[in-house]
């Protein structure tokens, strides 16, 4: 079986299929366009001449674009540093920025096709950031503690780190904990561990849950291209249905509808939980 992360095009296709069949987009819209920008403005104020924004593992930029459009209404000049290891994802991000036209005209983008770990090795932490966005990528970090401490180090004294992490009601987290032979390159850090890392350096953290669901009925249909892409993403195995042992495929599909995940089942729809914890991190008030 081949890791999905070694097939960038397949990964991108799987991610698009997932986004089209989850209500996460609606939840993420509210989080990225309203909740996080409002929290940032409340923390930072609006007096900065240049607002510095950092995003980790941004994918195609959907969440970041929403946040940047909202922040641009409050800050005259924004410099956005993008860290995303996939060149295909960066290309898609750039295209999505282009489509927004004048809404992002005053945003200067600095593109970095690398992992956060590579960025940490190559860049000295000179720039402090007012907002650091870490959406859905915590599970891919090799050294979680080192990465989180680095982000806190480059956080402006009035800044905000916004992190999303899979909760216990998350399909990816449950699969990775149940099938240890799958999900290569994907770890399952508990939100409590993240909070403990920031507590160790004296940060202030707040945690809330963002409930989300995904429709997986296509996974029950063997000839469904969408279903096969979703299975690839859930297991992080490229062409999982075709290359994995048949009993493992059947077992994973059955697991997807276990009571801990299943929300609704009917003839035309099967929805399961995919909730996220939202962690906001700030420096203590001096």
Structure description:
The chain has 286 residues and is of the alpha/beta class. It is 42% helix and 25% strand. It contains eleven helices and eleven strands. It has helices at residues 8-20, 24-44, 62-72, 87-100, 116-122, 144-153, 171-178, 191-200, 225-235, 240-243, 246-256; strands at 2-3, 51-56, 78-83, 107-112, 129-135, 155-170, 204-210, 213-215, 237-238, 262-265, 270-282. Strands 2, 3, 4, 5, 6, 7, 8, 10 and 11 form a nine-stranded mixed beta sheet that branches. Strands 1-9 form a two-stranded antiparallel ribbon. Helix 1 packs across helix 9. The longest helix is centred in the N-terminal third of the chain and has 21 residues, at 24-44. The protein starts with a strand and ends with a strand. The model has no long low-confidence stretch (mean pLDDT 90).
Outline:
The protein has helices at residues 8-20, 24-44, 62-72, 87-100, 116-122, 144-153, 171-178, 191-200, 225-235, 240-243, 246-256; strands at 2-3, 51-56, 78-83, 107-112, 129-135, 155-170, 204-210, 213-215, 237-238, 262-265, 270-282. It is α/β, with parallel strands linked by helices. Strands 2, 3, 4, 5, 6, 7, 8, 10 and 11 form a 9-stranded mixed β-sheet that branches. A two-stranded antiparallel sheet has the order 1-9.
Largest sheet: 9 strands, mixed
Average pLDDT works out at 90
Unreliable segments (pLDDT under 50, ≥5 consecutive)? none
- End-to-end C-alpha gap: 52 Å
> What is the radius of gyration?
19 Å
Instruction: Say how many strands there are.
Output: 11
Helix content: 40-55%
């Amino acid at each position: 079986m081949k890791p999905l992360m070694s097939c960038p095009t397949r990964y991108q296709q799987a991610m698009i299929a997932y986004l089209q069949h989850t209500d996460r987009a609606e939840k993420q819209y509210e989080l990225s366009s309203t909740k996080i920008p409002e929290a940032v403005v409340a923390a930072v104020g609006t007096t900065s001449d240049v607002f510095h924004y950092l995003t980790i593992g941004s994918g195609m930029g959907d969440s970041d674009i929403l946040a940047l459009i909202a922040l641009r209404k409050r800050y005259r000049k924004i410099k956005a540093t993008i860290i995303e290891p996939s060149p295909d994802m960066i290309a898609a991000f750039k295209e999505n920025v282009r489509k927004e036209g004048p809404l992002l005209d005053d945003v200067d983008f600095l593109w970095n096709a690398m992992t956060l770990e590579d960025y940490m090795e190559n860049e000295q932490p000179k720039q402090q950031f007012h907002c650091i966005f870490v959406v859905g990528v915590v599970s891919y970090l090799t050294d979680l503690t080192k990465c989180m401490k680095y982000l806190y180090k480059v956080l402006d004294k009035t800044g905000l780190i916004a992190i999303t992490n899979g909760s216990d009601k998350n399909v990816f987290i449950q699969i990775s904990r149940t099938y240890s032979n799958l999900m290569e390159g994907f770890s399952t850090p508990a939100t409590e561990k993240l909070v403990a890392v920031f507590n160790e350096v004296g940060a202030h953290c707040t945690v809330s849950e963002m409930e989300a669901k995904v429709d997986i009925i296509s996974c029950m249909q063997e000839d469904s291209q969408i279903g096969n892409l979703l299975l690839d993403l859930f297991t992080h195995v490229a062409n999982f249905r075709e290359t994995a042992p048949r009993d493992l495929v059947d077992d994973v599909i059955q697991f997807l509808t276990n009571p801990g995940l299943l929300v609704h089942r009917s003839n035309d729809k099967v929805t399961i939980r995919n909730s996220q914890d939202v962690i906001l991190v700030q420096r203590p008030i001096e």
